[in-house]
Batch of 4 targets.
Target 1
Amino acid sequence: PSPQGVGMAGPRAPRFLLVFDFDETIVDENSDDSVVRGRALPERLRQSPAAGGYNEHMRRVLAFLGEQGVRPAELRAAYESIPLAPGMAELFQLLSKHQEQFELVLISDANTFGIEAKLRAAGARSLFRKVFSNPAGPDRRGVLTLGPYHSHKCLRCPANMCKAKILAEYLAERAREDVEFQRVLYVGDGANDFCPAGTLTAADVAFPRKGYPMHRLIQESQEKQPGAFQAAVVPWESAVEVARYLQELLRKKC
């Protein structure tokens, strides 16, 4: 073992942790909208849910679809056909060539069933070490059921998921396994991505999708309190811009 006690993990440990959101980040739509498109929902399920009640709302939507005879295979096909965001296929290609440098995790308020289906269809599932999302799968009757991810005390986030808590716990778990990252890189779009992005340090990079809520919230926080948001901010319209930034990072070796 090396004198620092790093042992075998040392030279081969990935240098960068790359965190992805799913809806409107990896895929170009909100996957919940994609699976209900073209299906007749009753009025009570067409209303937008109250703030923070989205997981509960989707649970009711999926239960209703199950009652109408919509089977998981049909929903899987809907998830598989959601288009990737612009440039995402190119970004995945780059990452597949540099798997020893980047460790990938996905943190999403969608659901594990839809995410796993889409990643497999895109040939990208093996790139991700972990997928953190609301648990979903067929029950004994063959109806897709959905649960909350966890509980937390964050006042900014919906009751079922605080992404900052998930990220902090993951970094702590990896540190216990002697994996410390030089930088955390966070690719997202939504208001619930602003919470974890706010915990990043000056060494880290936030990649908000241009013009989406995460981007607007970062801009507002920078105006209100310059310096409070510490990470470098690299907005993107196409994930090719993220890929370009990562290539530069690899070239710099820092």
Target 2
Amino acid sequence: LCRDLSDLETQNEQVLAEINHLQKKEKSCQELLEAYNFSEWEISEWSEQQAVFTFLYDSIEFTVVFGSLIDGEVFGENPCRKIVSMSFESLLDEERAPLSSRLVQRLIFQFIESQGCWQERCPTLHYLPQVLHDISLVVSRCKVLGEEIEFLERWGGKFNLLKTDIDDTKVKLLFSTSTAFAKFELTLSLSANYPSASLPFTVQNQIGNIGEEEISAVLSKVPLGYHYLRRMVSLIHHNLLQDPR
């Protein structure tokens, strides 16, 4: 009887541990889903002539001009229409917007321009949901990148990050620490497919012996994905900039 009770207690502990593990996994998945909420668009106008959508806090306007009705086809509960043109416009105030916001806009429009003629991809309303999803995916990723840069500008000192600067679509990170006797600038080249591809980089050494070889060894250990830039900075700080003793 004692053995049976002991076995039962062991099984209960294992079940509780598994439940705890699954709950943590569920919470992690939920956080990722919230982070990658791809419904980034809002409708500001929908008429028989056109639909207007906005992205990224109303800083990007996407206009879809409708053509003639398609006989016998419906879109939702309405008749389906042909699409005759699709256009994008930036409404960002370039003079007042922070550098991170300007970078995000550049990357999004880099993606938009790389896709060629949008109307060819979306000849009728049936294709519009997929187009909105594709744009939302890029907007969501770039928006998170902008938030990461703002985080580093505010809290970079925790990672021995002296300065964060932006030049077109490049982010320049100036690291400096007396602990490891090192000062260097890391320049990362960004694109609209962030964070699904590794970032090309260069290193300009100013003090110490940390160069491209040392940085490359560290960055090769950083998995792609959510908060890629922040994790890169954190690992550089942890592996190269703390007291080597």
Target 3
Amino acid sequence: TKTMKYLLFNALVPEQLPTLKELTTTEICKVWASASRYIRRQLLQKKVVEIGIGTFAVIQTCATLEQGKDLTVERPVFQPCRFLKTFYQLKCEETKILEEAPSIPLDFEQIAADIHFRQEIVEQCIHETLLFFAGTLRDNKEVEFSFK
């Protein structure tokens, strides 16, 4: 499966990240900002977005108001895939994502068009960033991965 390529037995070497070496930090951030916008648009349509290492979705949860009343609210969540959690021994809050929600992968063509990049560059940038993320998990380093 797609996830298996992010289960790293060995440390990453720079040769595994050729696109990230060629792009500037600004260009990498541009790709991920576009990916974030794409994910947000899909979540607003109640779609589930799978990115190789896990899934973004919107779930319903209850919030208690001051008056003691419960209010149902929707909140975005990221659920790392089960293989990733097991392989890297991640402790994550278990979030139940509805099975009936349509699940879609990232649309690299749309993400690339949004920022006027070639689709292959966007796809490789995202793949290599996820590989780098997996490498930090493998090496037990602290990492922050933020989406707007």
Target 4
Amino acid sequence: DIAMAAQMSDAHRRFLQVLMSHGIMEGSEARALHRRCCEIHKVYYAHDKLEDFIGTINSHLQPLFMQIRKGMSESDGRAHYALVNLAETEITKMASDYTENELELFRKTMDLIILSENGFASSTDILNLADELKTKKMKKKEAEQVLKDFVEDKWLSEKNGEYTLHTRCIIEMEQYILSNYHDVARKCNICHSLAIQSQVCESCGTGMHLPCVRKYFRAQTEPRCPQCNDIWSWDIP
């Protein structure tokens, strides 16, 4: 109920503006920003009230079909906050920034990443797709530049020539991925959010993010699947 929602203050507005300019923020940055905004605008600040503070902003963003969402970095398990557009499916949102064949390359890259064992696709495999595009073939040089743009715009992350979905992309596209890849997309058994880079139980198919695997098995000498209790056959990261 918007009428009942806490009022937006200048502190909330500043927080939203900074987050909008970043697109995504790590948890510790968001907490520091929360504090700074409250201090600058002399608004009541409590260090454990970030979620409430964001909740107030979200209640005012609701009519605009926007939302600040919390997600997790799959590489280190840290919390992140991203501003998400709920009105458009994310692929249509990207359409304003990219051409048809660039979008097709992104979709195909996403296929590779989501269908892979480990949540990564090699640059070689992605570049090979560039001359198979239906919309309009892409030269290798051109495709390399487009991949750079995807990384810069935080749709993809790259490490040693391997690409995966950026944390921001996962937060924004979770619903899209779960509905479009419902046979293969899985949620983490521990934190229940979408898991792209994950380990999967060989017996029952239960998947877990690597940081969640690390946390969950920390105290176990003989790691067993939380679902079927079979031996966990992967190396614990």
